[in-house]
């Protein structure tokens, strides 16, 4: 039995979709363990494109069990819509192939409203959220007023839970200039969510049985390490833990059952939304990277900010998140540059730093210290062996390994899953 935890090592959007699809073919069980429908994977299989936000990547492969764990916050409407969209492409999604944790917290309209009201009221201080209610749903979970999927089974208890939820949200809505919402509207919304109950299960038990049976398990994270609520560029972060350790709590499984951690890492750096970005290139270089890399968000379509590879940030993600190996993606986007730059340290108020400081004010002031390396003119697109890569590209990859302190286990050279150089199979025992 083997298990692999897949996380992003930057600010998300590292190209996890292709990698998790490649790994899901080798896995028996695929688990989403945090986040919501504010992040997505794009899978391209036999020329068909699947855009997934909540559904684990294994759902498009026959014979795989997909699980949405308790660490996720679930928008029932978004899930049912996504299931319908996948079915239209010929994928059979049933309660036998998809399980949802019965204790998962629900995202409701009040959460989406609050998310958007706050962003609108924040002006230049807005975080840049997707406005899909993820943050407010996590707040309610921690505040012990969330309505969970299992609550839909207890009709007699539901009225009190709705009252408690609205006592909190209507006070906030009034303060933000919005009309209060009545209990009947929430009850009607919950009624429409009842079809999700068909997928509800004590998924921690299902996973325990899979572990005992020696099945391969893939734990699939969303976003990236630098968006982690503790370890990221706070407050410009997501509302959950995005590091590998969350896989245990977010799936209901002991940490001893987690195997290797694979950090998906883009060969340059991108970010969606607001917040610090030391290596950002708001110039023709950034435009070139964005155009060649088709840098638009899977979920929102927002244009991504682009910049040079930040080895300091990735090294920090490796050390803080326990990453064992990297899946380096989008190497082909760097084709044709005469020279490339890699951030090897920061400067803050005249002092050299080997890490990104925790303070928001300091993060905004750090300046990158670059090392310039030779680029390459020959295409790397579609390469499937080291021998097909230009020598300069191989040097770039090896230097990245040295700077971040982790080996490259997989190297991706195009969106197609077969265009992958496998160095070390993450599922090896």
Give structural attributes:
single chain; 429 residues; alpha/beta; Adenylosuccinate Synthetase, Chain A, domain 1; Adenylosuccinate Synthetase, subunit A, domain 2; Adenylosuccinate Synthetase, Chain A, domain 3; 3 domains; ten-stranded mixed β-sheet; four-stranded mixed β-sheet; 12 helices; 18 strands; globular
Question: Care to describe what's here?
Answer:
There is one protein chain. With 429 residues, the chain is α/β, with parallel strands linked by helices. The protein has three domains: 3-102 and 199-260, Adenylosuccinate Synthetase, Chain A, domain 1, CATH 3.40.440.10; 109-192, Adenylosuccinate Synthetase, subunit A, domain 2; 265-422, Adenylosuccinate Synthetase, Chain A, domain 3 (Alpha-Beta Complex). Helix content is 31%, strand content 19%. The protein is built from twelve helices and 18 strands. The strands form four sheets. It has a ten-stranded mixed beta sheet, with helices on both faces. Strands 12, 14, 15 and 16 form a four-stranded mixed beta sheet that branches. Strands 3-4 form a two-stranded antiparallel sheet. A hairpin with a 7-residue loop joins strand 17 (408-412) and strand 18. The longest helix has 21 residues, at 155-175. The chain is globular and about 70 Å long. The termini are close together. The mean pLDDT is 93. Homodimer. It catalyses: IMP + L-aspartate + GTP = N(6)-(1,2-dicarboxyethyl)-AMP + GDP + phosphate + 2 H(+). This is Adenylosuccinate synthetase.
């Amino acid at each position: 039995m083997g298990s692999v935890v897949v996380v992003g090592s930057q600010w998300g959007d590292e190209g996890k979709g292709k990698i998790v699809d490649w790994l899901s073919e080798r896995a028996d069980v695929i688990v989403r363990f945090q986040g919501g429908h504010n992040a997505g994977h794009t899978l391209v299989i036999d020329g068909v494109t699947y855009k997934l936000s909540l559904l684990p990547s294994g759902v498009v492969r026959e014979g795989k069990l997909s699980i949405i764990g308790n660490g996720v916050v679930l928008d029932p409407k978004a899930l049912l819509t996504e299931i319908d969209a996948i079915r239209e492409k010929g994928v059979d999604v049933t309660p036998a192939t998809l399980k949802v944790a019965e204790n998962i917290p629900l995202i409701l309209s009040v959460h989406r409203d609050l998310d958007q009201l706050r962003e609108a009221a924040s002006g230049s201080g807005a975080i840049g959220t997707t406005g899909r209610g993820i943050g407010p749903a996590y707040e309610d979970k921690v505040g012990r007023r969330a309505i969970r999927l299992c609550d839909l089974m207890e009709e007699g208890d539901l009225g009190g839970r709705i009252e408690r939820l609205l006592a909190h949200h209507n006070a906030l809505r009034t303060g933000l200039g919005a009309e209060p919402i009545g209990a009947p509207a929430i009850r009607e919304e919950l009624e429409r969510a009842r079809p999700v109950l068909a997928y509800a299960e004590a998924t921690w038990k299902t996973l325990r049985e899979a572990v005992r049976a020696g099945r391969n398990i893939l734990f699939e994270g969303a976003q990236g390490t630098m968006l982690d609520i503790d370890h990221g560029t706070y407050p410009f972060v997501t509302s959950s833990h995005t590091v590998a350790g969350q896989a245990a709590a977010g799936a209901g499984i002991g940490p001893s059952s987690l195997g290797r951690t694979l950090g998906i890492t883009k060969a340059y750096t991108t970010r969606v939304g607001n917040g610090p970005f030391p290596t950002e290139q708001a110039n023709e270089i950034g435009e070139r990277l964005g155009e060649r890399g088709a840098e638009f968000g899977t979920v929102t379509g927002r244009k991504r900010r682009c910049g040079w590879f930040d080895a300091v940030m990735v090294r920090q993600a490796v050390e803080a998140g326990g990453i064992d190996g990297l899946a380096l993606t989008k190497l082909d986007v760097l084709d044709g540059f005469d020279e490339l730059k890699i951030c090897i340290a920061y400067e803050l108020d005249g002092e050299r730093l080997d890490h990104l400081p925790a303070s928001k004010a300091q993060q905004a002031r750090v300046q990158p210290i670059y090392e310039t390396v030779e680029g390459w003119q020959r295409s790397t697109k579609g390469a499937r062996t080291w021998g097909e890569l230009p020598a300069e590209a191989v040097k770039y990859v090896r230097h990245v390994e040295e700077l971040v302190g982790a080996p490259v286990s997989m190297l991706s050279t195009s969106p197609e899953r077969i265009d992958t150089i496998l160095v070390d199979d993450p599922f090896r025992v």
